[in-house]
Structures are given as C-alpha cells and as structure tokens.
Amino acid sequence: MPTGVALRDVREQLFGAAERVLLRDGPSALTSRAVTDEAGCAKGVLHRHFADFDAFLAEFVLDRVDRMDSEAAALREAAGTGTVAGNLAAALTALFESVAVAIVALVTFRDELRARLRETWPAGVPVLTEAVDMIASYLAAERDLGRIARDAPVDMLAPTLIGTAHLLFADRKGARPEPGAVDRMVDTIIGGVVREA
Q1: What sign does the dihedral 92-187-79-164 (CA atoms) show?
Q2: DSSP of 25-82, one letter per residue?
Q3: Which residues carry the record's DNA-binding region feature (predicted)?
Q4: Same domain membership, residue 67 and residue 42
Q5: Are residue 28 and residue 108 in the same domain, yes or no?
Q6: Are 42 and 84 found together in one domain?
Q7: Residues of the chain with confidence (pLDDT) below 50
C-alpha cells in the first residue's frame, strides 16, 4: 500500500474487502488478516487507521447503515406510484439481498462490536432499526396519500414486515426465498389496510 493514499480511499478499500469476506465466508471468518488479505494491503494499514479491529467493524457497520439513506429516499419517492405491496416487496428484497443479513449476523456474533455500537447506536440492531424506519416512513407517506387506511398501525406493520422478511432471507448460504414468497408475505401483512383501486 503506497503511503500518502487518502484516508477515505483506505477506508473504502477496507470496507469493501470486509463486505466481500462477510458475504462469502460469514462473520466467523471476518478477521483483520482476512480483511487486509482481501484488500491486498499490509495488516498494519488497518491498524494505522482504526484503534482496533472492533473499532474498524463498528465504523464498517455504520457506513453500511448510512448507505441505506438513498434506499429510504427512493422508497419514499415511490409513494403514490405502482402498488404499495409491489413497492414494499421490491424494497424488502433489495434490502435483504444486500449485505444487511450478514451485518445482522455479524453484530449478533461479536459481543465487543455490539458494545462499541451501543456508544453511538443506543437501541436495536443497526440495519434492522434503520430498515424499520425506512418502511414506516414509506407506509406513512402512502397513508397520507390515502392508499392505505388512515388508522393503519404503521409502527406495528413496519417491524412486522422487516422481521418476517428477515426470516425469509436469514439463511445466508441457502437458496433465495421461492418466487412470490416475499409478495405473499407482504400481501398477508398489509392486505387489510390497503385502499388502492
């Protein structure tokens, strides 16, 4: 690794490597050596930019959570277009086919990482809590447009959708949910509140 490389470049290189290792080999394989080997740099590079490996992992998780902002904005902008169920099924599939499921497993797997995240993330599991907020915001927008019932319990529907979708996608090494499974799940959960023509 040449000296003088901007910190942001090093962070992105290491975060990208961590994501690849995590997706390919799971949380138990995510070590500082695996990350630096995957990134093609010396192990010392990681330790020059982060206090320790758990500090690196905490920043990696928060960086991936921050990337969800654009997904949340796109989903909110979809309010009033397509179908509520179709928009939700597409958003949930995109979310859980990403690194999200692997990050949840990583946070669950590492006690020290959870402790570090609690310093800046006081409640819930990063990714899942952001996902609940994303879905709740979308459902509230659809409620404001009259496409779901005015008394729809958005704050209950959002975590129900996220939790059930997570169960469908939780087996990282298994097959994707069968075609239509996400659509059926969404229809079952929101069917009673949808008011679309």
Answers
A1: negative
A2: H-GGG--HHHHHHHHTS-HHHHHHHSSSHHHHHHHHHHHHHHTHHHHHHHHHHTTTSS
A3: 31-50
A4: no
A5: no
A6: no
A7: 1-7
The pLDDT value given to residue 109? 83
Nearest to 91, CA basis, from 165, 150, 156, 148: 165
Tell me how far the alpha carbon of residue 99 is from its chain's centroid: 6
Predicted model pTM: 0.80
Q: Identify the pLDDT of residue 149.
A: 96
Q: Total domain count for the chain? A: 2
pLDDT at 23: 87
Q: Which residue from 106, 121, 116 is spatially nearest to 31, judged by alpha carbons?
A: 106
Domain that holds residue 23: 7-49
Q: Are residues 24 and 76 in the same domain?
A: no
Question: Cβ distance 22 to 103 under 8 Å?
Answer: yes
pLDDT at 60: 92
* Contact yes or no for 77/179 (Cβ under 8 A): no
Q: What's the CATH code of the domain at 14?
A: 1.10.10.60
Tell me how far apart the alpha carbons of residues 137 and 73 are, in angstroms, rounded to a whole number.
9
Q: What local confidence, expressed as pLDDT, does residue 71 receive?
A: 87
- Whether residue 97 is found in the same domain as residue 151: yes
